[in-house]
Amino acid sequence: MENPPKKNRGLRRPRELDGREKLPYFAPMRFAQGRRSRGRLGWQIGLVLGVALLPAACVKKFPIALPSLDYRAYGLKGIFRDDFPFFISAQTPDPGTAIPPTRWGCGVKVLPEGREDFAVRELVMQSAEHYLYLQNYIFANDSTGRATAGIMAEKVKAGVGVYVVVDAYGKLSNFHRTLYAEMRDQGIQMAGFEPKAMTFLSPNYVPTMRELNMRYHEKYLIVDDTYGVVGGANIADSYAGVGAAPGIELRDQDVLLTGPIVADLRRAFEENFNDLKWLEQSRPAVFHDRKKFANGFKVRPGSASARLLPIEFTDENVPVRLLRSRPRYEESYIYQGYLYLIRTAQKSILLENSYYIPDRELNDALLSAARRGVEVTLIVDVGKARDKLQMQPIMIRHYYLPLVEAGIKVYEWQSTLRGEGELHGKLSVFDGEVAVVGSYNFDPRCQYLNSENVAVIDSQKVSRALTDYVLAHDLARSELISREKAEANRYPREPTRFIRLSWALMVKDYW
Question: What is the pLDDT of residues 425-469, one digit of tens each?
Fold first, then answer.
């Protein structure tokens, strides 16, 4: 006779989610309770330590305002004047690479998102004969990353100098570092992908908590002083529109540049590469590649008229100016440029940015523009699937009400919420004449922590192309915010959301 089955009181019952039964969690209850207790204790200790370190990790504020109100007399296109009155940081090593003069006679192509963008990138990289530079915040070990690395490896074999900068954060797993190691073994010169904490090993440099929170967010693709790409896209399947899981695709915006502006991009990249290599080589030899990097690049700049590719440009022979901001040098040139363009716009302002967490001066500039009759359109994304604590969405929505009351049309990107992809683009158009495309977000991190770059373009054709694409494709995936919804999100009534908003506003300067 079989014994009746014993009742196991130490097992959890299967949980149900959306009517679908999940497998039971086969672990004794006492162990699960112990794990939960230890988990709560660890979370509480982490929270206390985080609050204690907050003052040390918060950003250092530095002057950002333009030096004079007289700049408004320059008009909207005064940003292209070589004597534009930027507030110059005393720590800027070379203003010529941070805010170089306007370059005339440039070609600009507005790159579509996803596959078409990366098809042009591949065409440009394949054309390299002298050098190929790439800097990006993310270089993922996926099909797009490996395809890009493969092109670079082929170019190295052909005698092309290939140099890559990848930001140090978020690349600590062996999964990504394996790809970087392979690239170095193939002769690609790499910089920046090591953990920032490695700088503690340098006898000549001890980073502060704020510096450990800084990131290289600039994005460049430069080939032979002939072609350059700037914008917001990273090297990953989710940006290229291939191989990514549903809902992970990203809407981003890049531009392809030709002409004298490309030399400015090259100098900016080389400055960043040299800075990172100096940090690496200042450590004991056991902690870095034994092969020393000379302060110089073994490449021959190519001719700007060579190897013209079958690419149709949006506009040609236009002025373009590169602006950079590096908080490690207390620079704010991009922020100053945006303030100027917002304050001098007379007809319309179109801002598409994945993060809108502004300081008071920038927000007031937008409100003032709307009140003087400028038609202002703002498109933001609040889905933020990658923000696990969901702090960014609640902060972004907090700013809606004053904007809507001033007559600004605020649109919320809906595709992230529907699992159809996230908005990551950073573009602006002023009066239908001046366009700005780059890596800069309207949040404290880009203002006080991240190094950034943008291209400011004086072209009605480029401005129109960007505006038409946004109106035709992006507004259809966005929702116009009503006053009622803006009021509900200004100060949430739910206690948990209100507490989360209060905490988010406290830490927004370094989140």
Answer: 999 999 999 999 999 999 988 998 899 999 999 999 999 999 999
Answer yes or no: is pLDDT of 187 > 70.
yes
Bridge partners of 422, per DSSP, are: 250
Please enumerate in sequence order all residues whose Cβ is within 8 A of that of 283, keeping only pairs 6 or more positions apart, or say none.
Answer: 198, 199, 201, 202
pLDDT digits (tens, 9 = 90+) for 55-95: 545 566 776 766 566 777 789 999 999 989 899 999 999 99
Residue 40 φ/ψ, nearest 5 degrees: -65, -40
Cα atoms in the 13 Å half-sphere on the side-chain side of 326: 20
User: Using CA atoms, how far apart are residues 242 and 245, in angstroms rounded to an integer?
Assistant: 9
Can you give the pTM of this predicted structure?
Answer: 0.84
Given a contact cutoff of 8 angstroms between Cβ atoms, the answer to whether 435 and 345 are in contact is: no
CA distance linking residue 255 with residue 251, whole number of Å: 14
Instruction: Determine the Cα–Cα distance for residues 248 and 152; give it in Å rounded to an integer.
Output: 26
Sign of the four-CA dihedral 227, 232, 236, 239: negative
Q: What is the 3-state secondary structure (H, E, C) of 320-345?
A: EEEEEECHHHCCCHHHHHHHHHHHHC
| Helices assigned H by DSSP within 95-216 | 95-98, 115-126, 143-157, 174-185, 209-212
Asked if residue 394 lies in contact with residue 504, where contact means CB atoms within 8 angstroms, the answer is yes
Domains and CATH numbers, the chain: 103-287 (3.30.870.10), 319-507 (3.30.870.10)
Residue 71's pLDDT is what? Answer: 73
- Burial of 20 (C-beta count, 10 Å sphere; 0-12/13-18/19+): exposed
240 within 8 A of 150, measured Cβ to Cβ: no
Q: Three-state secondary structure along 29-97?
A: HHHHHHHHHHHHHHHHHHHHHHHHHHHHHCCCCCCCCCCCHHHHHHCHHHHHCCCCCCCCCCCCCCHHH
Q: Tens digit of pLDDT for each residue in 149-168? A: 999 999 999 999 999 999 86
Residue the block writes with tokens 């922590």: 449
* Cβ–Cβ under 8 Å, residues 334 and 323: yes
The answer for residues whose C-beta is within 8 angstroms of residue 321's C-beta and 6 or more apart is 79, 80, 100, 101, 102, 103, 261, 455, 456
pLDDT digit string, tens, across residues 219-270: 999 999 999 999 999 999 999 988 777 677 899 999 999 999 999 999 999 9
Contact in structure between 320 and 451 (CB atoms under 8 Å): no
Cβ atoms of 340 and 311 within 8 Å: the answer is no
Alpha carbons 176 and 182: distance in angstroms, whole number: 10
42, amino acid identity: G
Q: Quick check: 161 and 299 in contact, CB under 8 A?
A: yes
Q: Which structure tokens are listed for 459?
A: 């072209």
Residue keyed to tokens 């250092």: 60
